[in-house]
Design goal:
Blueprint: H1 3-9, H2 50-63, E1 67-71, H3 74-82, E2 90-94, H4 99-108, E3 115-119, H5 124-130, E4 135-141, H6 153-163, E5 166-170, H7 175-178, E6 188-192, E7 206-210, H8 213-226, H9 232-242, H10 245-264, E8 269-273, H11 283-289, E9 296-301, H12 304-314, E10 319-320, E11 330-332, H13 344-350, E12 356-360, H14 366-377
Parallel strand pairs: 2-3, 2-4, 4-5, 5-6, 10-11
Antiparallel strand pairs: 1-7, 6-7, 8-9, 9-12, 11-12
The structure holds pyridoxal-5'-phosphate (PLP).
Length: 380
């Protein structure tokens, strides 16, 4: 089956007992055994749940992986995956990953004996030079949040194979509709399903997709041992969202391209970050490895923080809010919102300036979005 069909039919659908077309929500913590020592396939919802299983199978098939697991949040998914490692292991991570990922690594996992190096993941030599005898993992995010930097996924998988490293990619921004990292040789895919997979800003969730039996067994073990799984109701919301993922992504991409093209020419805009623009340093790689560029557009405004605040106060169709990937357009200020957990020096080093604004371009009529940006950018 093709992507659009899988998004609607993957997993056990229709449900076996009554043929329900909408996946039933199994709101139960526990399951009656058929006999002593014999379950009907499920025993306790932390370990596995039938609603969750349909979502897990769906995400695994969309990514082209072995198995899927879903979590209470994207951070719960990441926290679970990082526990595949042990004290003394070294991880090389992109330097402009989501602020919460940076915080998990620097402020939580470092205290448990993991070692991190944060690098711009653009040059093979830079990464190979950072590999040490205890390096175990490459952690990648592409397009990155909020600078939309592009990582060459095939090159990363090649480096990892040569040095026997595990590769993890955060595929939240691209979604499997635009990028299928496993096809390039990546070992594990993580998602914040809160974003495009759900698509309606009404749930927080996460996912992990594995590629081998060994990784599948270990992630299942950790999910159960750590209790990081998603609730059945949240799973249902994400399942419902995924059914329209292909049509939503197409429109997000089209609207974002129009918004980026408009902003690029605007005199109040200092710098653009959108991988669909030819001027973006990752444009060629993005075009090669992705089917679309996505719905997030970042830009720097001229005139410092005062102009940022004026813009954010004036927007009407865009809401001033964190998160992204929903049908409604959002605007946010990474330095004080999504990436406030990153120390100022690190933000400066990677290029997340105080003048940077990140837009999640939604599915409204694009002319209304552009008019909103025009009036918010007008000189006062
Ligand atoms: C790229 C990326 N990864 C992970 C996360 C964390 O996901 P969650 O907020 O669902 O815990 C986010 C959240 O903004 C994100 O943007």
């Amino acid at each position: 089956m093709r992507f659009e069909t899988l998004a609607i039919h993957a997993g056990e659908r229709p449900e076996a007992r009554f043929g329900a077309i909408s996946v039933p929500i199994y709101l139960t913590s526990t399951f009656a055994f058929e006999d002593v020592g014999k379950t009907r396939g499920y025993d306790y919802s932390r370990t596995a749940n039938p609603t969750r299983k349909v979502l897990e199978d769906t995400i695994a098939q969309l990514e082209g992986g072995k198995a899927g697991f879903v979590f209470a949040t994207g951070m719960a998914a990441e926290a679970t995956v990082i526990h595949l490692l042990k004290a003394g292991d070294h991880i090389i991570s992109g330097d402009d990953v989501y602020g919460g990922t940076y915080r998990l690594f620097q402020n939580v996992m470092r205290d448990f004996g993991l070692e991190f190096t944060f690098l711009r993941m653009d040059k093979r030599e830079r990464i190979e030079d950072a590999i040490k005898p205890n390096t175990r993992m490459l952690w990648l995010e592409t397009p990155s949040n909020p600078l939309l930097n592009i990582v060459d996924v095939e090159m990363m998988a090649d480096i990892a194979k040569k040095h026997n490293l595990l590769t993890v990619i955060d595929n939240t921004f691209a979604t499997p509709y635009f990028l299928r990292p496993i096809e390039y040789g990546i070992d594990l895919v993580v998602h914040s399903t809160t974003k495009y997979l759900n698509g309606h800003c009404d749930v927080v969730g996460g996912a992990v997709v594995t590629t081998t039996d060994e990784l599948t067994e270990r992630v299942q073990f950790l999910l159960n041992a750590m209790g990081t799984c998603a609730s059945p109701f949240d799973c249902w919301l994400v399942l419902r969202g995924i059914e329209t993922l292909p049509v939503r992504m197409k429109q997000h991409d089209e609207n974002a391209m129009a918004v980026a093209s408009y902003l690029k020419e605007h005199p109040a805009v200092k710098r653009m970050f959108y991988p669909g623009l030819k001027s973006h340093p990752g444009y060629e790689i993005a075009r090669r490895q992705m089917k679309g560029f996505g719905g997030v557009v970042s830009f720097e405004i001229k005139g410092g923080i005062e102009k940022v605040n004026t813009f954010l106060k004036r927007i009407k169709v865009f809401s001033l809010a964190e998160s992204l990937g929903g049908v409604a357009s959002l605007a946010e200020h990474p330095a004080t919102m999504s990436h406030a957990s990153m120390p100022e020096e690190h933000r400066e080093k990677v290029g997340i300036t105080d003048e940077l604004i990140r837009l999640s371009v939604g599915l409204e009529n694009v002319d209304d979005l552009i008019e909103d940006l025009r009036q918010a950018l007008e000189p006062s």
